[in-house]
Sequence to fold (254 residues):
Amino acid sequence: MPPSGLAIIIGAGPNTGSGIARILSHPSHGNFAVALLARSPSTLSSTHSNLKSTSPGSTIETFPTDTTPDSLTKTFSAIRSHPSFKGLKLSIAVYNVKHSSKKPFMEETHKDFTDSLETYVGGAMAFAQESLKLLFEHHGDDDLSATNGVKKGTLVFTGTLGALRANTGFGAYGAGRAGVRQLAQSLAREFSSKGVHVVHTIANGGISDEEGEAQKEGRKMSAEAVGRTYLWLAQQGPELWTHELDMRPAQEKF
Fold:
């Protein structure tokens, strides 16, 4: 069965990213051709090997990149010209970059603080801009009213509870997570009428790419459950779009 469209995932690590990619790529689920983006070539290689065995018959290609604008521009250009994606239109783009920073505030430096924001928030901005360019290139830029309500695609930012509140020592982390949440809100308000569904999720709790006792008992989320949720978001029509979604396992305290 040929792929139904194109999915791009940045932050394609061994846990959340793998589960999302497996569901989006699997012929019995999303059936999207998937472009996997990550900073580490070795991580991409191991993730790709895992997915080829757990998502048989799928189309998955890897692209090493960081979150700088120049790197992402080159990567999206490579995606455009890749023969595996010929004739496919972008359906969903996922910003799933891991971001952690913990330091007592009086030990924080201006450089480390702003570097953290540049990597995470600046990366989200660059990824979103490249994704939107590709969506409009593939689907046009007409409003929903001019296309009889045809959805162009979905842009998802995976966030955490740090986007809502930050604990002691997490100043840079909280500023970055909150910044991406606000970016998602702004993009949703600007591009929803164009048929682009923008979502910010809040992952509150651990995520593992397995289906073990911790998942069955609601102590951890399964990465594939996150993937199924993202596929559901991609399938939503303009009559109802989820913008912010809180995700947690059953036993996570809140």
Q: What stands out?
A: DSSP finds seven helices and nine strands in the chain. Residues 93 and 131 are 7 Å apart (CA to CA).
